[in-house]
Task: structure prediction
Amino acid sequence: MRIGLTAAGVLAALLLALVLATSGRARPNTVHTCSATDRQFIETARTNMTALELWSEQYQSGDASGEDVEGQARTAAKMRGTGPTDSSLRQTRRLVTGMLSEYAKAIRQQERRRDAGPHMYRAYRLANFAHIVLVRAQAPLAQHGCDVSPLL
Result:
């Protein structure tokens, strides 16, 4: 009788553990910050995106070469001097870096008269992911004094 009760207890405990393990979701405890390096990242990213937008417009109008735009995108992707401390801004930095790298690859493919579509698709997807991260973090970051609206 004891063996039966012990087995039933162990089985119940295993089932409970299984239910908790498969249905529970880990929710990261995100604490937002707004340090000087966070502000520096926001300003650098804004400046890089504005400059790249201008270069892209010049490229489309024929006033800039693909090599120039590719070089600007690669330079912007390095995000020199930025090291945000906020987790959302760190994630955004990685996504924007990837987006700019993919954009540079797309321009290179375009210049070689090859299909730039896959690289542009990845660049747009990374941009969309970065946008989602920033939208979710916008209010908490604003409470700490960081305005990410120029990046949206």
